[in-house]
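Regression report. Comparing outputs from two consecutive submissions.

Submission 1:
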Amino acid sequence: MTTATLVIPPVYRLTLRALLDGKRTLALGLLALLPVIPAIVFASAGEIDPQIFWARLVQRLIIPTVAAFVAVVIGASAIGDEREDGTILYLLSTPLSRPGLIVTKVLASWSAAALLLTPPVLVAGLIALGSDATPGRILWPIVGMLAAVLCYCALTAWLSTVTRRPVVIGVLYILLWEGSIATFAASADRLSVAAYGRVLAVEGVIDVNAPETAAPVAVIVLAAVTALAVRAAARRLTRTEMP
């Protein structure tokens, strides 16, 4: 069964609409704008090389912190909100396939996160790089970010089927691992989602600390983790009645 046949369009549309509605979306949208602020400050000061500044912004703020946090909150909400209000029980009572539900929820949360994150990162890159801006220097970090975001969404979808506190666990992971240890420790970054996003980002920018892994390998790792998380979440839905 292909991914295309797994996607359930009505569920996708309803989930995407729910994820982009409400005060949570406004708060996450403001968080997504965070990289623009240091880009503006840097553009007015210009004390270091624009490419180095952009690389540090991508490595230390955009991928492991802002993108990770937005993805975790939205990814957890795709299933967690319906678990809280009981809507998930209705979906589980239908003949819809469990893998199809999970794939659809993950794609909807990824789409919502991408809509919130991509424009601010694009603007931040254009401001920070100025005359040094090229398509590769901006698009590769966005590609790396979106690849990591998809993986985060899948992992938090799985967490949402296991615990009622997926956001708490996800935020602890971001703060204690992604935003600190894995960003600077060469041995730890191989167990980091953001690190493999940085592998893709380094294709377009310089001075990014990432595992010594080729871009195709990073894509395979992120895809494998995403697939395993989706499979685990689907099995959880199949074998367990959600409260």
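Submission 2:
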Amino acid sequence: MTSGGQGKDLDVLDLQNRARFEQLVLPHLDAAFNLARWLLRSRSDAEDVAQEAMLRAFRFFRGFNGGDARAWLLQIVRNTCYTWMEKNRSVELTTEFNEEVHQQPSDSPEALAIAGDNRERLARALETVPPRFREVLVLREFEGCSYKEIAAITAVPIGTVMSALARARQRLSRALAQATPQEAPREL
């Protein structure tokens, strides 16, 4: 058994493609982690999935024929997230969010005091939105992707992206409105 024969089986990029990968794909590592974090709602799971997605992107970079490297990478991250969720959280993908079934336990006074921060409130509200709606919100509002990029990443028509985004915004708005009375700062 020679080591030369094994090297051909490995998906290793030559120096030129490796430099191209580093230039085109690596700058979007934060966006990849951000999308994974919002879809999976767990930092450690997102780190694992983002790393797996980057390995997949590296392994299949030879197949990248130009275009939007960010959209290409985020599509890989999205697919990796959904594959991970199917294995680990199959119920979450098939269950639509129902306020009656998925009620949050009431927070303690200490938690309510801490919850005054709008960013925390937004994050909690966003986590109540189903994953497929959450992803279009994150891609559009946090990552600044165009409808066309989101359509490419999610592999759905632009019209579907637009309607999903509208529904996602409505659900997020409802979640924020429901959280507001409980979390309104109290005057001393």
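Expected: both submissions complete independently.
Actual: both completed, but the second showed a warning that disappeared on reload.
Relevant detail on submission 2: Confidence is low (pLDDT under 50) at residues 1-10, 93-106, 108-115, 183-188.
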